[in-house]
Amino acid sequence: MITLKDLEITYDSPNWCPGCGDFGIWVSLKKAIVELELNPSKVVLVSGIGCSGKLPYWVKTYGFNGLHGRPIPVSEGIRLANHELTVIVIGGDGDQYAEGCNHLIHAMRRNVNITLLVHNNQIYGLTTGQYSPTTDIGEKNKATPIPTVESPLNPLSLAISSGATFVARGFAGDTTLETKLLKEAIKHKGFAIIDSLQPCVTFNQKNTYSWFYERIVNVNEEGHDPRDKMKAFALAEQWPLKKSLQDGDKERIPVGILYKENRSTWEEEIPQISKLPLVKQPLKEVDINPLIDELI
Ligand code: SF4
Ligand code: MG
User: Fold this and answer.
1) Axis-axis angle for helices 22-35, 175-187 (nearest 10)
2) Which H or E run includes 213?
3) Which of 11, 35, 238, 258 is the one with CA 20 to 30 A from 188?
4) With contact defined as beta carbons under 8 Å apart, do 229 and 160 qualify?
5) Cα 238 to Cα 162: distance, rounded to the nearest angstrom
6) pTM value?
């Protein structure tokens, strides 16, 4: 059995801004690993660039911090080599929904068996507040003084329509919910995405903890059945808003598990690895000279 102490690193500690939502997600991830009794030497955290990208430094598992938007191809490579490892991708809204969006769509349609945890702070925090694909229309801040005119991307609608088999939204201000979602996502067989609302207390002065507390609604507590794809899609479409609210209407941000289905995974469908991870297969000497002769 492992404890939170087993996941602590001793040589460094997080340098996120005090109050950053990344802390809540970091704590929740460690609690999920402990409560699932995962062996830290069988867990790989893969991240890209951004404030969230530093998270693997501060959890004592294996980790890989790669290029902006590219943690998904790295995690696919890890799963191809050894699909006995638990692979958790840590990304930001810029990293996953802008730079890495193409990789994201194809990993979802393939149903790669990984968990994607997106720290969605609706901004590029590390580079001081440029607007990102999930920034609310009309927002302006230090690095984007002219209000954005672009409609925000809807990550959960994209995930459901692209073939993700576990689609959820969490909130950094609710570590009980976040831990529960992470445990379910990690246990899920197939591509699991958790879009986690993550207040950036330094550069996003609109989407604050109190702003979210006033709007979030746990759809599972309301009785939503995650097997109902059409209902899941309707819930996903409730936020971000595409038009202004009518007088008296209240903005609702659905959190919880919106969609879940069972479908065979990418790793199960690839005949070369479906029976045994590549790293466990015997090495065979193969003479490639005839093939090269054929090509030249
Ligand atoms: Fe967190 Fe924003 Fe600070 Fe980055 S800039 S550490 S996202 S509060
Ligand atoms: Mg961001």
Assistant:
1) 50
2) helix 209-213
3) 238
4) yes
5) 18
6) 0.95
Q: How far is ligand 1, taken at its centre, from the CA of residue 162, in Å?
A: 29
Question: From the CB of 204, is ligand 1 less than 6 Å away?
Answer: no
- In terms of Cβ atoms closer than 10 Å to its own Cβ (0-12, 13-18, 19+), residue 250 is exposed
- CB 120, CB 129: distance < 8 Å: no
CA–CA separation, 60 and 51 (whole Å): 18
The one-letter amino acid at 150: E
Q: DSSP 3-state assignment of 272?
A: helix
Pairwise CA distance, residues 176 & 241, whole Å = 26
Q: Which residue has the tokens 């609302």?
A: 197
Structure tokens at 202: 């330094």
On the CB side of 263, how many CA atoms lie within 13 Å of its CA? 18
10-36 pLDDT, tens digit per residue, is 999 999 999 999 999 999 999 999 999
What's the 56 CA to ligand 2 centre distance in angstroms?
16
Classify 49 in phi/psi space as left (phi over 0), alpha (psi -120 to 50) or beta.
beta
Digit-coded pLDDT (tens) for 176-223 = 999 999 999 999 999 999 999 999 999 999 999 999 999 999 999 999
Closest residue to atom 3 of ligand 1, CA basis: 17
